[in-house]
Design goal:
The protein has 15 helices and no strands. It is mainly alpha-helical.
């Protein structure tokens, strides 16, 4: 059964069958006009008006056993969600929620067997990317309803929302923004902040998060959250670089670089300790039981990056001595 289509990069056919042509041809409205009417009736917006996350339907579940064609309400939901995706492919908030409505409501079932087939053929999007968007829209909407959170930032906030709840998620994001000051908040900043959090059972109140981040920055466990160093005028910087700290010819810049490197390594060690603690206690066994494929993939990635870290941290002093000799 064919269905009306928006001006979207869809692979679905818009050709009606003969029976539909004979039955509806005299009063059939153009597809764009019908879609505009549906979107307007459900959201109050026309096809040229950007949709907000609040105008999208609430995600709901439809069982896999349901094979009936979409009813009028479902068609309306699909039109609204596809219109949102058409205009907000890069917005994790709007696109993520639209994808969740389509996935959980199985609004793709008239044209595609699976959600993966739908997002691949209609939106040229990999299944994993679609699920990352779905996972990320709630924390992104929580910390920034205007939708200025990108997918990478949302991906770092999603585990915080799942493990600690909405209050801690909002407090963490605001704390990072405050500590960063005029500097742009990045996914790497949020990753460092998330790694600095104690286990949920050790966090008595959400307002403790700000203090936790401040201490982590001061101790070098979250160097990206440390206050920015004051800018030095160009002339003073040149003079500063020209100074030699000792007779060995080590400049102040080299000393500063070394101190920063030590802080980076200390932060890495602290994160490694946290990883060690979090992976223990049957975490891997539980993950493999819940989703064997995904669990095994994550386990292999964990081991792979541990090996890469060990390689980078290897003792190369012997090689250097040999080279010097």
């Amino acid at each position: 059964m064919s269905r009306r289509s928006l001006a979207l990069p869809s692979t679905r056919s818009t050709e009606p069958d003969d029976a539909d042509e004979l039955e509806a041809a005299p009063e059939e409205k153009p597809a764009a006009a019908r879609s505009a009417g549906v979107v307007a009736s459900l959201t109050g917006a026309d096809l040229s008006t950007p949709l907000t996350v609040a105008q999208l339907p609430t995600p709901y579940d439809v069982a896999e056993t349901v094979t009936a064609p979409l009813n009028d309400q479902e068609r309306g939901y699909l039109d609204v969600c596809e219109q949102a995706l058409h205009g907000f492919r890069k917005s994790v908030v709007v696109a993520g929620k639209a994808l969740e409505v389509i996935n959980r409501g199985r609004l793709y079932r008239e044209t595609h067997e699976t959600f993966a087939d739908y997002v691949t053929e209609v939106w040229d999007m990999k299944r994993a990317h679609a699920y990352r968007m779905i996972e990320g829209w709630r924390p992104a909407d929580l910390v920034s309803p205007i939708g200025d959170i990108n997918e990478g930032q949302a991906r770092e906030l999603a585990p915080v929302l799942k493990e600690y709840g909405p209050e801690v998620t909002v407090t963490l994001y605001r704390g990072v923004k405050e500590l960063r000051g005029d500097r742009r908040v990045t996914a790497a900043d949020l990753s460092e902040a998330r790694a600095a959090l104690p286990p949920p059972k050790h966090l008595a109140r959400p307002d403790q998060v700000r203090d936790v981040l401040t201490v982590a920055a001061a101790e070098g466990r979250a160097p990206r959250l440390a206050p920015a160093e004051p800018k030095v005028p160009a002339q003073a910087a040149d003079e500063h670089q020209a100074e030699q700290v000792d007779e060995g010819g080590v400049s102040q810049d080299q000393v500063d670089e070394g101190a920063e490197a030590i802080a980076t390594l200390e932060a890495a060690v602290a994160q490694q300790r946290q990883i060690y603690d979090r992976v223990g206690g049957g975490t891997l066994a539980a993950a493999l039981l819940y989703d064997p494929g995904r669990g095994d993939h994550l386990r292999r990635e964990l081991r792979q990056y541990a090996q890469r870290t060990a390689y980078r941290a290897r003792d190369t002093s012997g090689e250097q001595v040999a080279d010097d000799a």
